[in-house]
Specification:
Elements (H helix, E strand, L loop, with lengths): L9 H16 L6 H7 E5 L6 E5 L57 H11 L7 H7 L3 H26 L13 H13 L9 H4 L6
Helix pairs in contact: 1-4, 2-3
């Protein structure tokens, strides 16, 4: 994205961290392509601050906080448990005047393992509370309970239907769609979604990512 850490809106750091939490919970290895399957990156035309936007039809997370008014001018601390002399080479110490846009990845942009991971998350049809997952992060067992409870209603109805119509059903089969199936699924979801991302990072961050 070619931006300094503090150049990215705080909500976006929350998105990135919670995306990692979800991938860990579902035993998925997160990648750059997978992140940009659910989000796109558009630099603001008014300021040098940059922001991630949820891709239409691929809603995954709600905003960590709907309104930030006091974060500008503050510093971002980068910390790692493993000493790495090359750590700062991956982070600009200055704000970039030319952030690089990242368009949404299509199904064809994904490798097979990435496609499987995105299929798993997309097939949940659930919007997760970013603030709740960050709060529960120190206790993985609490994260599991929250996600399981959130998905219980959807999966209980869906699984009951599948199991009563096909006793030999295996849950993993629902998470493995072909690229053609994914394209068709995305088209249906996009038709049902009317919210389009904005170029204005300040305004976009106040919209629910659905």
């Amino acid at each position: 994205m070619n931006v300094a850490p503090a150049q990215l809106h705080p909500n976006n750091w929350a998105f990135i961290r919670v995306f990692q939490i979800l991938c860990t919970h579902f035993d998925i290895t997160p990648t750059r392509n997978m992140l940009f399957y659910f989000f796109e990156f558009k630099p603001s035309k008014r300021t040098s601050r940059a922001s991630l936007n949820g891709v239409s039809g691929r809603g995954l997370l709600l905003l960590f906080q709907s309104s930030y008014k006091t974060f500008k001018g503050k510093f971002l601390k980068i910390q790692t448990d493993c000493p790495d002399s090359n750590l700062l080479t991956r982070f600009h110490l200055y704000w970039s005047p030319r952030p690089q846009s990242q368009t949404p990845r299509s199904v064809d942009d994904l490798k097979n393992n990435e496609l499987n991971g995105c299929t798993t998350l997309d097939h949940l049809d659930t919007i997760f509370e970013t603030s709740v997952l960050l709060k529960l992060e120190p206790q993985p067992s609490d994260v599991k309970v929250y996600i399981d409870v959130l998905l219980l209603h959807y999966f209980s109805i869906y699984s009951f239907f599948i199991l009563t119509t096909n006793p030999n059903f295996h849950a993993q089969k629902t998470m493995s769609l072909s690229r053609a199936d994914m394209r068709l699924r995305l088209k249906k979801k996009e038709k049902a979604t009317s919210i389009a991302p904005s170029d204005d990072s300040e305004k976009t961050d106040a919209l629910p990512l659905k």
